[in-house]
Amino acid sequence: MVERTAVIAALDAIIDPVSGQGLVAAGLVQGLVVADDRAGFALEVDRSQAAAYAPVRDAAEAALKALPGMARVSVILTAEAKPAAAPRTAGLSKAAVDQGRAKARVATDRPAHVRRVLAVASGKGGVGKSTVALNLAAALAARGLSVGILDADVYGPSLPTMLGISGQPAYEDGAIVPHVAHGLKAMSVGLLTKMDDAMIWRGPMASQAITQMLTQTRWGTEEAPLDVLVVDLPPGTGDVQLTLIQKTPLDGAVIVSTPQEVALADARRAHTLFQRVNVPTLGLIENMSGSVFGQGGAKAEAERLSIPFLGDMPLDAALREGGDAGRPPVSVDPLGDIAERFAVIAGRIVAALDL
Ligand SMILES: Nc1ncnc2c1ncn2[C@@H]1O[C@H](COP(=O)(O)OP(=O)(O)OP(=O)(O)O)[C@@H](O)[C@H]1O
Q1: Locate the MIP18 family-like domain: which residues (predicted)?
Q2: CB 38 within 8 A of CB 72
Q3: CA 200 – CA 294 distance, rounded (Å)
């Protein structure tokens, strides 16, 4: 059991190179969570200084790991835009000073230059939501669309493994430059923190990290906007998911379920959640169809809920192996059965989102 006070003291012993104060005193430590043998927080710095703070982040992580009883530490370096401090001036009028001051960013969760945002959700974990999200993104890209994928699954970010990407993304002109793999622009909370750190995010911190990845990543430009951003949501229908979908400007959602009765009950809850926030559920996808879980359950459920049934995906070793190896089957075997099934689903999504 690690004491919160010990964590704060350790962080305050690290000096912020800019203000010369301890990290806590300098106001850089946000959303600190201390739970049993784990701790995590976001180190919130000005965008232009994100790179310079990487060593500070490492020092903070090392200091917390050195505390007795600490097993896991997770520090995310964020780059919140802050209005520049008023420059020291001699004799300039306030109006003149204000002229030279950076304008505060207007807070919006809508990512710039992104035409549509599509959520992929599941009522419970382990149904293959991330696998479906990635291969669906690849199928949309195969239609000539420019596609991004945001792994918002803070509890188990799997996109880096499934796409074979690693390493913190670069910052350029105050924006996060997404990795590009298999033709997809990709961003994952797993790239901002150490992969093997347990995710201990709680509601506000999780949604803050996701909002930043959503709005501060350069998904598209004015000349070349992103057609669709696929957001792989954390599994479940709890508070974290609700906060997220309330804060994220979603144009539609698809729900992934296995054919099993319990999984379908969870899918129903996911649909209800989207209804509550007026996000259209574009349909249900049955994954691991024909497996021990049965077949056809999702189609019947979609009819009951009066939402479209988008298609089914069999239990297929290529999907699992491709995921483990960073080679999504839709990209590496574009003529195969899996790619064909995802192409049909992608076609339905394109129509529903008017892409
Ligand atoms: N149709 C399929 N056939 C074979 N394996 C699959 C299929 N769909 C998913 N898998 C495998 O099942 C495991 C869980 O899949 P995935 O990580 O996509 O699920 P998830 O619902 O996103 O999980 P979590 O909720 O934990 O994030 C992975 O090993 C994946 O490769």
Answers
A1: 5-75
A2: yes
A3: 34
pLDDT in tens, 26-41: 888 876 777 778 777 7
List the end-to-end C-alpha distance of the chain, in Å, as a whole number.
52
Q: Is 328 in the pocket of ligand 1 (CB under 6 A)?
A: no
Q: What tens digit of pLDDT does each residue of 171-180 get?
A: 888 788 999 9
How many Å apart are CA 53 and CA 59, to the nearest integer?
Answer: 10
Calpha distance 298→266 (Å, rounded) = 11
Nearest residue (CA) to ligand 1, atom 15: 128
**Contact (CB, 8 A) for 181 and 215:** no
> Which of 131, 240, 258, 287 to probe ligand 1 with, by most ligand atoms within 8 A of CB?
131
List, in order of start, the domains of the chain with CATH numbers.
Answer: 4-78 (3.30.300.130), 114-352 (3.40.50.300)
- Concatenate the DSSP letters of all residues of 161-225 into one string: HHHT--SPPEEETTEEEPEEETTEEEEEHHHHS-TTSPP---HHHHHHHHHHHHHHB----SSS-
Question: In the chain, helix, strand, coil percent, each to 5?
Answer: 40, 25, 40
The residue whose CA has the least distance to atom 11 of ligand 1 is: 320
